[in-house]
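Please decode residue identities from the backbone states below.
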């Protein structure tokens, strides 16, 4: 793998030089006022990115998976029932974690390539007349299949059922790259990771926690120590942490938010949508299609490309790494070999994206797949030429 080439995986993403420099700081006493001056703007910035009007932001030295564990362990008790749809590898992993914690998971099996099934969720909640379901788990952006789910729609389904369950959302590969409305969507816990839209190295689990979820801590009895929100919030009040934090990453998080807001969050989301559409047009020119079942489900951060019959997506990923030093994502779980994944989130531009598409085409040609060199690149070029980024227009 060449460090000169950008990566095209759905995380960790490419790290801007400004953020790398921001993370590279001397040792800092994490109990000092200097740390508090760094930490408080980072927390306030996360609140703005999430569009949180009330509640608390928790930043843990962990990853998105640790964020999932913190979400359930702080708000639930052994034997509690949670409702979750399984439609990809990451929704499956969250279900598996809940089961390992002794929770009763009511699973709505959903074909991969589809998103969270709103009708089935509403029906399950209406059928729960005893109100035993304590939380609904939703994966906003399923990176295994390149599918986004309608979180606002899930909230509408919960409201239509008149159900008091908490809404917990895995936004690891969407927050900071796709629109996210914590308060307007009625989210109770949102989980993000530093290594995706925030463009940092892996190492931080970033959570938004609603007042309702904070109140649930009073009755939750699942064990937690390292991930205990009560300890975190008590230490926050003093401007610090209950243990040693990832100081360099927090410095980088503050810089990341500055960069996102300098670009403008709406512009960030538009850039991701534009990059994604160029990728999809390239795929169509190759005679292929996204794995997502319909256009309304297409993710703006990752596309799982359904490969032709007789082809293996893993072969392309391995060849790209070995011959060209470029990283794409392999298919996971049920779609292993059936797809390869193109990540288009974080620090990426149209020019960088075109290099990834060109590499994918070279690999296809090397493998003897039915593709005409330049066809996908030309389709993406044509689209990018006609949808110049806002910053370029403003500079003219």
């Amino acid at each position: 793998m060449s460090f000169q080439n950008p990566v095209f995986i759905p995380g960790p993403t490419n790290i801007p030089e400004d953020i790398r420099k921001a993370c590279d700081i001397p040792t800092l006493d994490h109990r000092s006022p200097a740390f508090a001056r760094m930490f408080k703007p980072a927390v306030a910035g996360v609140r703005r990115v999430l569009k949180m009007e009330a509640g608390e932001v928790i930043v843990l030295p962990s990853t998105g998976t640790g964020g999932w564990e913190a979400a359930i362990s702080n708000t639930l008790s052994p034997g509690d029932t949670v409702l979750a749809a399984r439609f990809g590898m990451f929704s499956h992993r969250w279900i598996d974690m809940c089961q390992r914690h002794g929770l009763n998971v009511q699973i709505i099996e959903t074909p991969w390539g589809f998103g969270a099934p709103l009708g089935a969720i509403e029906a399950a909640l209406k059928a729960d007349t005893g109100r035993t379901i304590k939380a609904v788990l939703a994966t906003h952006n399923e990176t295994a299949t390149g599918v986004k789910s309608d979180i606002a729609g899930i909230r509408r389904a919960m409201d239509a059922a008149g159900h008091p369950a908490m809404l917990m959302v895995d936004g690891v590969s969407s927050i900071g790259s796709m629109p996210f409305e914590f308060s307007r969507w009625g989210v109770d816990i949102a989980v993000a990771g530093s290594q995706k839209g925030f463009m940092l190295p892996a190492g931080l689990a970033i959570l938004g926690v609603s007042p309702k979820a904070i109140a649930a801590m009073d009755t939750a009895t699942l064990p937690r120590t390292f991930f205990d929100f009560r300890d975190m919030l008590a230490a926050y009040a003093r401007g610090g942490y209950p243990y040693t934090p990832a100081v360099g990453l927090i410095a980088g998080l503050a810089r990341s938010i500055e960069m996102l807001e300098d670009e403008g969050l709406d512009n960030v989301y538009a850039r991701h949508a534009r990059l994604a559409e160029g990728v999809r047009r390239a795929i169509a020119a190759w005679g292929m299609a996204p794995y997502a079942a319909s256009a309304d489900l297409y993710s703006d951060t990752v596309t799982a490309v359904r490969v032709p019959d007789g082809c293996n997506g893993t072969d392309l990923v391995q060849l790209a790494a070995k011959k060209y030093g470029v990283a794409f994502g392999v298919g996971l779980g049920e779609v292993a070999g059936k797809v390869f994944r193109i990540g288009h989130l974080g620090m990426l531009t149209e020019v960088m994206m075109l290099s990834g598409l060109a590499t994918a085409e070279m690999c296809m040609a090397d493998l003897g797949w039915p593709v005409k060199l330049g066809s996908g690149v030309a389709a993406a070029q044509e689209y990018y030429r006609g949808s110049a980024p806002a910053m370029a227009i403003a500079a003219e």
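Observation: The mean pLDDT is 95.
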